[in-house]
# Entry
Amino acid sequence: MNTAFDNALNQINRAAELANIDAQVLAKLLVPMNEVKIDIPVTMDDGSEKTFEGFRVQHNNWRGPFKGGIRYHQQVDIHEVKALATWMTFKCAVAGIPMGGGKGGVLVNPKELSVTELEKLTRGWARGMKDVIGPEIDVPAPDVNTSPREMAWIADEFGHPAVVTGKPIEAGGSAGRGAATATGGYYVLDTLIDRLHLEPEMRSAVIQGFGNAGRIMATLLHRHGWKIIAVSDSRGGIYNPLGLDVEALEAHKDATRTVQDFEGAENISNEELLELECGLLVPAALENQITKENAASIKARVILELANGPTTPEADDILRERGIEVIPDILANSGGVTVSYYEWDQNMKGEVWTEEQVDDKLRKAMTEAADAVWEQKEKYNTDFRRAAFVLALERLQESAPKE
Ligand code: NAD
# Structure
């Protein structure tokens, strides 16, 4: 099985075949600039000592400081972190922000740790990485299983708010950051909706993952008149072809910690959820969910990738043949890093922007990014993913150091 990093390289190479990219520039973009691995010793609540593996991959900084989240997961490995860092470089270029690509991770199941242990682990990660991160060097952010709480610990440990983004407002965070990934995804969808021929009667959505990205997307789509027919989390999914009451579902998730067993809905597996007939499928969980094994069974009209890397290149080929449009992660979820950049910019300038200011800027940035990708798609007569990667490659080539 290909790793997520193999998939990322494959996506870059496919796009490079279309565009006029210098071979040396391309070669540099296929290898991260820096990979750091640390051991993080933590004294657990019962007095025992445990050591966790921590990672930071700095893929590219031609356009600005490395930027990207930190993931806590029991399956984090260096290939995954390399892939995620690579996608960040391309995403920042698509979004048009002056940042590069990085990503971090810790091999841990955070659900097995107490808050005290998580704080020690997070502060340990920050101490171990203190020479490689910094406001002008590398600026981490939240990702799967990390949140503003972890970012506040890192900022405190490092001693400067601009070292991380996605902080709580009171610790120097930005208005609008929490909802930015889903909001940005919604603006991208809204910009392209007519070109995608998603007529009002096709506006039913299936969402995989009910965390920061998926849950807020469910609320936004629901508010804009979409019928949310299925959602899932790590324990499984629920389905109601007539539409779910998203507000009641949020209360149910908060009370029971899962979306399953929601009144009026049928429990389904994550595999079944992906294959439901719908206008829009939103993967908002993890990588490698749509693969050559299930791509032929996907019945969505359009896929909007809020997750990073949910579709493999083989699956892309099958979906393309079947006429299913895939709005790729590096465009669809770029609202998160865009508002992270706004947060960093506010911290660096000592400014505080209102939610309205942030939202106006985000809408404009996402509309421009979606239009720019569409232009490449038309120009090269290709799919959205290749078009987005071509756009990023051309922008990265412009900022490559001249030898
Ligand atoms: P999160 O931890 O808040 O939520 C993840 C959700 O996915 C949870 O509901 C979890 O239960 C669910 N999940 C985990 N495994 C699953 C499985 N096998 N099937 C179905 N659901 C599963 O994380 P998040 O921040 O929402 O991130 C989700 C995805 O979006 C990731 O790929 C992340 O890299 C990407 N993303 C997030 C941001 C951001 O700002 N949060 C930005 C860009 C991209």
